[in-house]
Amino acid sequence: MTLTRRSAMAPKGAYCFGCNQAIDGGAPSVRFESDLVPAPDRPELANLYFHPGHLLRYARRRNWTELASFLEANTPSSW
Hints:
Layout: E1 3-9, E2 28-34, H1 42-46, H2 55-61, H3 65-73
Antiparallel strand pairs: 1-2
Helix pairs in contact: 2-3
């Protein structure tokens, strides 16, 4: 099981899918890839931007229980 985090420059007008707030262009944002989400949802996750620490909110909202459990056990604020 893997979860890969990478820093990303959010394009102008992007927003965080964890908190639904705008990410100003150039502000710190992150993108993820993981096999902890169902296979059909992996491309979705790979194309979303998040503020640092907000992935857990989105994982709970999407009912990605395996990913949420991993995040809760591994310092969710760092993801």
